[in-house]
Design goal:
It contains 23 helices and 8 strands. It is an alpha/beta fold. The strands form 2 sheets. It has a 4-stranded parallel β-sheet with strand order 2-1-3-4, with helices on both faces. Strands 6-5-7-8 form a 4-stranded parallel β-sheet, sandwiched between helices. Helix 14 crosses helix 17.
Length: about 400
């Protein structure tokens, strides 16, 4: 793709990055075939190719409009187009740069800026979210069953402790997950403890929520705070484990988000290189299941977009579960986004609900007893529309190891 970006824009790190991405695009349109929003609407501007032209126009100095903003906002950020693209176009980075341009030009209406700020602070501020969950828990008996299932049974469960000298990893707590599903990281800590691996808490929101809610300044503050807090601890650990694939994908982008920052760019790159997917630390359970265990539930595996297209752990997770004797159903899942995408389900409920309904219908073709996933956002979103339980896969793994009496490693 030919570009006509000004020399002034090309002098910036973002300008050079966007130009490189744009010039990779060959207009083939393969990306549209795997784009959820294009599939729902058939609108060229609701697909990656159309959005690329919108960002190109912005980079070349054309007037920013609410139309450009709306089409970029409606992108789920699933990155299926990147996996499909034969030219290696990193669309998510191009879309991020386009949104930052629109943010700087003040295109977004004041009321929309306000609601996005409120959402970002509600979800990445444990005080606000914990208060809402506490109220919901007190009213659980009066809530619809699907909504009640989204509330945690308790506020906190202690992680196991290991003796001095054990291997250790940093385990990121996140912002939403410790409030809505503290059992996920607790299960991960128990599973790792059985292997002689201790967990040190790495607190702090990764910054994805604020960044994708058009508050890049807040997101960059969170990113820098995390680097300052986590980087010194990496020398004493075997890596940073993140059980939410959405957070892992965003941390992997820290080097790009800190590009040109002399204080943080190198540390951001080193930190991103030390992120370890939880499945990498586990081996299949070789102990044969008992007769009773053979009656265990059938699972539908939901692979989050961030795991499939960004982190790259789909095949490893599938093999891990299948080789451990778990009953993973074959379903009609087409691999497209479930519609969660952070706060997308709140901002674009019609599209999000349509994608969730389609995803759940596909899972039901395998007659599963429960659905397992690898991301807190997908877990909560799917559970809100599902008649069967939706859990993080490490919760099931922890229960299975406990049942089989897997000894400490």
């Amino acid at each position: 793709m030919q570009t006509r970006i000004s020399a002034a824009t090309l002098s910036t790190p973002e300008g050079r990055e966007a130009n490189d991405i744009l010039r990779r695009c060959v207009h083939c349109g393969f990306c549209n075939a795997t784009c959820p929003t294009y599939g729902l609407t058939g609108n060229e501007l609701e697909g990656p190719r159309g959005r690329i032209y919108l960002v190109k126009a912005l980079m070349e100095g054309e007037e920013a409009t609410g139309k450009s903003l709306a089409h970029l906002d409606h992108c789920l950020g699933c990155r299926a187009c990147e996996t499909t693209c034969p030219s290696g176009v990193q669309f998510h980075r191009l879309a991020d740069i386009g949104r930052e341009i629109l943010h700087e030009r003040g295109i977004r209406p004041a009321w929309d800026r306000w609601r996005r700020r409120v959402l970002a602070r509600f979800f990445d501020s444990s005080l606000w979210l914990r208060g809402a969950v506490a109220v919901g828990r007190s009213l659980r008996a009066f809530l619809p069953s699907r909504l009640a299932r989204l509330l945690p049974a308790s506020r906190h469960t202690a992680w196991p402790r290991l003796a001095a000298g054990s291997r250790e990893v940093l385990l990121q707590e996140g912002c939403v997950q410790p409030v809505l599903a503290p059992e996920i990281n607790t299960a991960a800590a128990r599973v790792l403890a059985r292997r002689g691996i201790g967990c040190r808490q790495a607190s702090g929101c990764c910054g994805a929520l604020a960044y994708h809610l058009d508050d890049p300044d807040r997101a960059h503050r969170q990113i820098r705070s995390n680097i300052d807090a986590w980087f010194p601890l990496l020398s004493q650990s075997d890596g940073l484990v993140i059980t939410a694939s959405g957070c892992a994908a965003f941390v992997a982008d820290y080097p790009a988000l800190c590009r040109g920052d002399a204080r943080y760019e190198e540390r951001a790159r080193a930190l991103a290189e030390r992120v370890v997917d939880l499945s990498e630390l586990l081996e299949p359970m070789v102990q044969a299941p008992s007769a009773d265990e053979r009656q265990q539930p059938t699972l539908a595996l939901h692979v989050p977009c961030t795991l499939k297209h960004a982190v790259g752990g789909e095949q490893r997770l599938r093999a891990l579960l299948a080789n451990s004797g778990l009953r993973v159903a074959e379903t009609a899942d087409d691999g497209q986004c479930c519609g969660s995408a952070g706060a997308y389900s709140i901002l674009h409920p019609k599209t999000s609900t349509a994608l969730r309904r389609r995803k759940l219908d596909q899972f039901m073709t395998g007659s599963p007893d429960q659905i397992v996933t690898a991301n807190i956002g997908c877990r909560q979103h799917l559970a809100a529309g599902s008649d069967i339980p939706v859990r993080h896969w490490i919760e099931l793994w922890d229960e299975l190891e406990s049942t089989r009496g897997v000894p400490p490693g």
